[in-house]
Every structure is written in structure tokens, then in C-alpha cells.
Amino acid sequence: MAGKRRHPAIGIDLGTTYSCIGVWQNDRVEIIANDQGNRTTPSYVAFTGSRRLIGDAAKNQAEMNPSNTIFDLSMVTGLKYAQVQGLYNVLVFDLGGGTFDVSVLDTEDGVFQVLATAGAAHLGGEDFDNRMVNHFVQEFKRKTKKDISGNPRALRRLRTACERAKRTLSSTLEATIEIDCLYEDINFYSTITRARFEELNMDLFRKCIDIVEECLSDAKMDVGSVHDVVLVGGSSRIPKVQQFLQELFNGKKLFKSINPDEAVAYGATVQAAIMSGEDEIEDFLMNDATPLSLGLATDGGVMTVLIPKNATIPTRKEVVLSTDSDNQPCIRIQVYEGEGAMARDNNLLGEFEFSIPPAPKGVPQITITFHIDADCILDVAAEDKTTGEKMRKTITKRFRLKH
């Protein structure tokens, strides 16, 4: 089967801060280096006159050209798991540059079943950088009586130095900040210890662990039942984060066999190869789950759930609705996601109106069907059981993470 395939299987991680690409060849995943030889590329694009810069080149000039440099784009990856074999229960801890995701899976005979997911749409390495930047902005103000908080170029240079220091602190106990002419020809020199960095971000680190515990609870699993904890995302290298995780899992050794920066691209490449029909891995199957409940706004604004949180994908559910007034000309179908009892407390994904012929209230029988396919695309259909009229709408708005 592999010999008949015309195109290579490629997996792409379009990350908030860094991107990575893998290709399936020679019966394994190979990460593709960029033209600088780096296996990850900054998620930056810049415009300078007639030139367009991408990746490292764009990031390297961001300090001088902040207004024409685009970065920090939140992307949703197609598949967030690292390929692990021979395990039963796996927790994937994905702490990236801009988002945090946790998934609990079980695997048996090559079938991966997502039991629960949880996460935070705005929690990651950039938040840790922000704490350090604010720390040094205040220090610079104390030392020089100058406030750089309104100067984009100075902040970008300081942020770059803080990101570098954060990475350094994952392997050493102290990092140095040195920036020539940071603001008004004033040089800035300082240091920060790992302990101080941890103190600045302790509440965020603990929030990560709270979300892990929530995910385990949703999966109805205790820490002793997890066979492996897989680290994904560059921020999972932070020692304090790893310490908290190991303490939660009673000293369990964390799974680090796959580079955290490359794990998403690795998993996406494996999934691409599966979809392409590669013989070597066609026995693997990945069953995803819904991160939040999906439902409709019904009488009184109540959230009527059709597909519950953590339902296995693909899935199909239906409900029969009717009218609440005589000769009602249409039914408004509003699709929400979330756990709130009232629809207004949840996230509106889409809406449409379905026309019906005049009839006394309660007589029309309208079947509403939710269908989520293997690609997590939600299709909503309405059918009048009396007339046979149908209407279908595909919800293109992405599922949202909690918190």
C-alpha cells in the first residue's frame, strides 16, 4: 500500500511561539530542519519594505521592527499526543508557548482512547516570560527612574532577553540579563535566580497541576493508575513544573523519550501516515474526545446537552424539538459548548433558522442531529418529520478550551 501512495505523509505543529514539521519516511518519523539547520522555527513573520521574512530571520529583527513583525498567533494542532507504545494509561502534559492542554488516554492493542481532556487557552511560556518582563521593568524603573512599559522596542528587547534567561534557568540556577542601550542610551544589567523565577510564576505552575487533577477526575482515574506521564511543549522542561508533576504522581519518572518541542509534529506525522495507509502503522487507531459538552439553547434559555464532555469522537446524537407558540414560522437553532446550565453561560458556536409551516404549538416535530466526524468537524442537521424538509449547517468555529 505504501508503494502506491503519491504524496508523503507530513505532520505540522503550528505552535504559538515555535513551529515544527515532520515527515514519515523509512518507516519512521523524521523532523525536518529549516534552512538554518534548526529543527524548530519561530512562529514569526515580518515585512520590511519589499521583503517578507519568516522564522528566525523575522524574529531576529523584531526588536528593530516591532510594528511590522507578526507573532503570537494561537494555532490549534490537529493531533496533540506523543506516540507511546506498550502502555495502558497515559497522561499527556502539553505546556507550550501560549496554551496548556492535558489529555488522559488509555491504549490497548494499538487503539488510543481519549478518556478526558482539560486545559487553559492562555497559559504557557509567554505568561512566564511576561512575569519576568514585568519584574525587570520595575527593576529598571527603580534603578533609573525611567518607565519603559510604553516603549515597544525596549519591551521587545527585554522580552527576548527574558525568554533566553528562562531557557537558561531550566539547566542552571542563575541567568544574566545584559542589554546595551535598552532605553535612552541606558545599559541594563541584572541577574535572576531560578528560585526567583519560580516565585514569580508559582501560582501559574500550581494552576497547571490543578488542571491535571481536574482531568484525572474527569477520566475517573487516580494517579496510581497512570502508567506514563508524557511531556510535550518546551515549557514542560521547567524544573519546578516537572517537580510538581513528579510529586503529584508519587515520584514517577516522567516520559522524556520524545523531544517536547517536536512531540506534536511527531504525533501529527504519525496520524498523517495512518491516514495515508502506511503499512507499518496501520494497526494504530486514535479515538479523540470532545473537550466540552455540546448542545442547544431550548425553552427558557436552558442548555440542552446532546453530546456530553469527553464523548468519544466520532459521534452522533439527536433530539426532537417542537414549537412553543401557535403558527411559529421557524425554529432558531443555537449551538453552544460548555458546562453551564444556561446557554448564555456557554460559548456560542453558531446559529441558524429552520423554516416550518404554520401549525398549533407543540405539533411540529423537528429532529436536530449533531454529528462530529473523525476530524472534529461538527455538522448540525434539522429535519421536519412531517414535511421531510431538511437543513444542514457545518460549524466551522473551533472548539474552545476551558479556563
Any key phrases for this structure?
alpha+beta, 3 domains, 4-stranded antiparallel sheet, Actin, Chain A, domain 4, single chain, Nucleotidyltransferase, domain 5, 403 residues
Structure description:
This protein has 3 domains: 1-83 and 262-287, ATPase, nucleotide binding domain (Nucleotidyltransferase, domain 5, 2-Layer Sandwich); 125-199, Actin, Chain A, domain 4; 294-395, Sandwich (Substrate Binding Domain Of DNAk, Chain A, domain 1). The chain is built from 6 helices and 22 strands. The protein has helices spanning 56-60, 125-144, 152-168, 194-218, 239-248, 263-276; strands at residues 9-14, 18-25, 28-31, 41-42, 45-48, 51-54, 69-70, 89-95, 100-108, 111-120, 174-183, 186-193, 228-232, 285-287, 294-298, 302-307, 315-321, 330-337, 347-355, 366-372, 378-384, 390-395. A 5-stranded mixed sheet has the order 13-8-9-10-14. Strands 1, 2, 3 and 4 form a 4-stranded antiparallel sheet that branches. Residues 70-85 have low confidence and may be disordered.
